[in-house]
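Please decode residue identities from the backbone states below.
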């Protein structure tokens, strides 16, 4: 009965982690690194590292499968989560570009909460010089909950790519995300 009581805990925070891309959609690919695999590995690590019984982490996908943006938005909106984070990797023609980018949209009805969440994430990614930007990506506009997009690094930058594909890097990125959620 303890599990049932905690399951119905009205104070429990529901956080959806959206692992970008998947299935037929690889996202950015550099060398043998695929965005869809990196984003899923980190999403799973965030869920795995979460030991806080007051926070429930739900992933939009647990495996390499394709989900349309509309399906993702519907899934997320049906859950009515407290926060949503969509994980991606950046890519650029310049192999010099690096660092973390966070995105929010003025078209999201929870822009104030989204911006606060972005600021919390930014402080947890300070050593990667995280910057907050505005964009009108589909999920940022269509999801009814506070939502951020995070580009966890630049896959076309060798240092960022090596970090985000390493066990240590993925663990540190996932822990930084979790720290911001808590």
């Amino acid at each position: 009965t303890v599990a049932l009581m905690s399951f119905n805990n009205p104070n429990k925070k529901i956080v959806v982690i959206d692992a970008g891309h998947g299935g037929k959609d690889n996202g950015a690919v550099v060398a043998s690194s695929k965005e869809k695999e990196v984003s899923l590995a980190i999403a799973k690590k965030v869920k795995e590292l979460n030991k806080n019984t007051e926070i429930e982490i739900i992933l939009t996908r647990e495996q390499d499968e394709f989900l349309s943006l509309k399906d993702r938005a519907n899934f997320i909106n049906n859950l009515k989560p407290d926060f949503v984070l969509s994980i991606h990797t950046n890519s650029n023609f310049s192999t010099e570009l690096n660092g973390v980018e966070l995105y929010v949209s003025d078209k999201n009805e929870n822009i104030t909460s989204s911006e606060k969440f972005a600021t919390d994430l930014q402080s947890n990614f300070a050593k990667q010089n995280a910057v907050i930007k505005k964009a009108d990506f589909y999920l940022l506009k269509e999801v009814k909950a506070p939502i951020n997009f995070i580009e966890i690094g630049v896959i076309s930058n060798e240092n960022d790519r090596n970090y985000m594909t390493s066990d240590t890097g993925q663990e540190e990125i996932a822990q930084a995300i979790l720290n911001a959620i808590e």
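Observation: Residues 120 and 180 are 5 Å apart (CA to CA).
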